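thread: overnight batch results

M.L. [08:02]
morning all. the overnight job finished for the chain we discussed friday. pasting input first so we're all looking at the same thing
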Amino acid sequence: MNGPGPIPPQRRSTAVRAAVVLLRVVLTLVPLATLGILGWVPLVWLAVTRRRTQDWVMLCLTAFLCTGSLFLGGYTNGYDNWQTNVGVGSLLMLAVFCSVYFLFNDLRRRDRRHALPPVHQPYLPHPAGYSPIGPAVPVGSTPLPPPPTAPSGRIDQVRAELDELSAYLREHEREREGR
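M.L. [08:03]
and the structure it wrote out:
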């Protein structure tokens, strides 16, 4: 029952942590540096690492919107028409959205993976001399047997019914012998 607690995750080396941070920075800057044209690149990383349907749907939707916005922005030769304004504006919004979405989900995934599960210990009455905080039985010793429980009301009722049945059968047996 009592044993060593959960093993904390091993710390990564400094080089590995630096590489992870560098990769995160590069993937965050790609949509911003390309003005949204490659906004789908960090979402590819999320979809591959997390393997969730939601991430694959977001990747496909973002790739479609980036491509459509690029075509809409470059559809005409003029720079002052609604197609260019909507296309370039949506590309810029996609650049910001993709960067924020990637950072939010990647950092949340990292926090969930490194969080320790809560340790639930059952309540045990502690013997004298032990603190109520922590396990009631010190590690390495044998646990105390549970205290004896008093019989419940149902057992007493069944016992009374069996006594009545026994008395009835004895009485019935005497009447039979008396005939």
